[in-house]
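Predict the 3D structure for this chain.
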Amino acid sequence: MIDIFEKYAPRWRSAVRDYAKSVWNEEDSIDARSEYDSRARLFAKRYRYALEQYYADKGMRVYRGTITGKVKEWLNVQYALRDSIPEMVKDRQNEVVQREIARLQKEKSYTAQEALNKIFDARKGENVYKVFSFKDHYKDKSEQIGDENAYALGTSINEGIIKNFSDRYIWTTQRDKRVRETHRKLNGKCFLFDDPPTEVSKSGKEHKGNPGTAWGCRCYAAIPTKPVKPLRGYIVHER
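Done. Predicted structure below.
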């Protein structure tokens, strides 16, 4: 399962990055939106097929109607993301500009004044991207957004499939350094879909949900391979 996620997630990560880059650089918005939509549909189709094959190889017959609904939901979220990225990019550019202006205004050198003039000219002409590159200021963020949304589709389809065969699951992480502390503690434990664990952060904020429902979560539900008793009313605290 992890192999499937690792194979397909980078494809949507790059799609979101490429679209965000075109927005940042003020390239043709119609072409960029069309390309984004096309890649979203292709990604969902291939991701879905890979997961269906994964379970078919295990002798598990998948009800396609359930998965179709999950895919449609995901695509709607991605179209909403597409529409929100221009505003997100604009906010980021304004943040970068204000921070750089504040830094340069503390300097008194001729070079600093030249840089300020360049920034102000760019803002007047709405060409901020010519002064501040996408690579340095939004590439990593856009890839993170793409990554999280790719895993969201995988975990959603996966959960829809497993629920056809079991009322419980094994919490499974991606087993890398990005896994948060509370999810490392949940890894390998069994829960009911109707009674997921509750995470409590250091600040006291609570989140009750199955894998993939918390912000930025890349965990997924794995079907138990042997009879196992689920934990009920489970709470895990961040240290």
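The chain has a mean pLDDT of 89.
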